[in-house]
Write a structure and sequence with these properties.
This protein is an alpha/beta fold. Helix content is 51%, strand content 10%. It is globular.
């Protein structure tokens, strides 16, 4: 049973008050004043017993909910402390083990903030974050300490890993189990009985009796609201924040968090936390609703339109596989506000767990409608409409490039899913949640039926690109460690590039498999130059062929927003691609890029 937020509290309180008024009226109708007065002694004695018992029970439950909430805050802080200790203690280890542990710590912190926190609102945990936590132990499997400092630090790191797992299990238990249904049943029935007894007194003034009974219901309702508010620490309006892990990320990436301490433990009710987001969308970004031309349903998008009446570029940013239009990908909007671009972040039927989403015909009908919406409200430069996305959003950016080639000036895709059947196999091997989600989208596993296989093909980038004719450039980026620390192997980006590239420029399957397995680029494929836009995640391999460029960088499931948007800014529909634009000085985006969510 789940009760969350202000609306629930209002329902509990107003519902209780209304019920009390109805009970008084019912008692007056069923029993005469004389009968009610004659029963005062019995009613009063029973009310004192029932009321006392219920008051004690309700008080204990309220205290238990408050303690539960405070304990959840402490568990999150302790888990993040253990993660930070692992990162800092690893400084004493050899370079190989130190690099492994630090990369795993950063990946875990990002996955907890960007994937797991939104899942915990539904009582779920991230399989990717769990696998990354397992990787902490495996990172030291082949390590034997040799120096005295290593011998001193090694058991301390193992102890912190053990404590991290203990706190993680506690956090999972708290997120998955709230106030038991039987406890809610007892509280609600007890409240009804207590209010009923209060309504059985025969007063000369009906108004006075209603007033007293209403006050009783109000006090009980307020306490029940406290139970609903604090009994579910990771869901609702008042939630335990992921800020301690965000602070870890700031430490790991050399940044510092100046958020006041009193704002770090609890999420602000006035700024709802959405997936992947400690920094909120800029206030200039609004929500726009429209009727889908495909089925007439109401659909939504985030929207920013710059002031003025001159023609402006339009950025279409696609949310990730598990996200929706509210998923916080604020750097896109921050860029558009700074550069005077229009911006949309459409829902396109939400997360990829239903047939209507994940590149369906309905989603692309909605996308056409979103473009028309933006163009109806602001003059848009038709030569500067750009598509961008990361992970499942990268998949959508490439699908949009293939299916709507008449629209775009360029598309930038980061760590994209490009072959749903292959990703289904990858996800089964990793035992994460995505295989089941893909099956819900396509109607079953690959090979289940001809219609199922057709659905996989229709939603796969590699199949769509095979028949597409692209009159504009596409930029495909992937991190060499993705598929190990992330959920989409580098092979997906390479396959998409190979479909578009000339035969001589394609990367052979054997080489692709080696890149996935070894996470190293052979010397004969290594990028010999440097790209200042990728300074924080250097380019390891780069190929350009026809309308496509492939970049494999030193990172995981990541996006470099400044690099993506600077490259898009240089492109114009109908003109030759500019493959190596110069970075802005200073950068447009000052906030470092987080790891991408799924």
């Amino acid at each position: 049973m789940e009760f969350h937020g202000f609306r629930t509290g209002l329902f509990i309180i107003l519902g209780g008050i209304l019920a009390s008024i109805v009970l008084v009226a019912a008692a007056r109708k069923l029993f005469s004043k004389d009968v009610l007065r004659q029963g005062h002694d019995i009613t009063g004695n029973l009310l004192s017993v029932v009321g006392t018992l219920y008051a004690v029970l309700l008080g204990l439950v309220v205290v238990d909910a408050l303690v539960r909430f405070e304990h959840a805050i402490d568990v999150v802080q302790q888990e993040s402390n253990s993660l930070a200790d692992i990162f800092l203690l690893s400084e004493k280890l050899p370079e190989l083990q130190r690099g492994r542990l630090k990369e795993i710590c950063k990946t875990y912190a990002h996955q907890v903030v960007e994937q797991e926190w939104p899942l915990m609102e539904r009582g779920l945990m991230s399989a990717d974050a769990r696998d990354t936590a397992f990787s902490l132990t495996r990172a030291l499997n082949d390590f034997e300490p040799t120096t005295e400092s290593q011998k001193a630090v090694y058991p301390m790191i193992l102890e912190q890993i053990r404590e991290l797992w203990d706190f993680r299990r506690e956090r999972a238990g708290t997120a998955q189990f709230g106030i038991p249904a039987v406890e809610w049943f007892v509280l609600i029935v007890g409240a009804a009985v207590t209010v009923l007894f209060a309504g059985l007194f025969g007063s000369q003034s009906v108004g006075l009796q209603r007033f007293v009974t209403t006050l009783t219901a109000l006090v009980i309702g307020l306490n029940l609201y406290l139970v609903s508010l604090f009994g579910y620490p990771f869901s609702g309006e008042l939630t335990v924040s992921s800020r301690p892990f965000a602070t870890d990320i700031a430490i790991f990436e050399g940044r510092f968090d100046d958020t006041p301490a009193h704002e770090q433990a609890i999420g602000s009710p006035s700024t709802p936390r959405k997936r992947g987001a400690e920094a909120p969308w800029p206030p200039e970004v609004t929500t726009a609703a429209f009727a889908s031309p495909a089925d007439g349903s109401e659909q939504k998008t985030l929207l920013y339109l710059p002031p003025g009446d001159e023609s402006v570029p339009l950025l279409v940013a696609f949310h990730t596989w598990s996200g929706n239009y509210l998923q916080n990908e604020a750097p896109y909007a921050e860029w558009c506000i700074a550069r005077g671009w229009a911006f949309v972040h459409p829902d396109l039927r939400g997360p990829g767990d239903r047939p209507e989403a994940a590149g369906s015909d309905l989603a692309f009908a909605d996308l056409r409608a979103v473009l028309e919406l933006a163009q109806s409200r602001r003059r848009i430069d038709p030569k500067r409409i750009y598509a961008v996305g990361v992970s499942g959003g990268g998949m959508m950016a490439l699908l949009a490039a293939a299916r709507m080639a008449d629209v775009w000036a360029a598309a930038s895709a980061w760590v994209p899913v490009t072959d749903l059947a292959a990703w289904h196999a990858d996800s089964l091997a990793r035992k994460n949640k995505y295989a089941a989600m893909i099956e819900r989208v396509c109607g079953g596993p690959p090979g289940a039926a001809a219609a199922v296989d057709a659905a996989y093909t229709a939603r796969s980038v590699v199949a769509r690109l095979e028949t597409a004719r692209l009159p504009f450039p596409i930029d495909i980026n992937t991190g060499i460690h993705d598929g190990h620390t992330g959920s989409v192997p580098v092979s997906h980006a390479i396959r998409a590039f190979n479909v578009v590239a000339a035969a001589a420029d394609r990367i052979p399957a054997a080489m692709t498999d080696a890149l996935v397995k070894n996470r190293r680029v052979p010397a004969d494929l290594a990028f010999a130059d440097t790209d200042p836009l990728y300074a924080t995640k250097p380019v390891l391999l780069r190929r350009q062929s026809g309308p496509a460029r492939l970049t494999v960088f030193d990172g995981g499931h990541d996006i470099l927003h400044e690099a993506a948007l600077t490259w898009l800014e240089a492109q114009r529909r109908g003109t030759a691609a500019t493959w190596s634009p110069q970075p802005h000085a200073p950068p447009i985006l000052s906030r470092p890029d987080p790891a991408a969510g799924m």
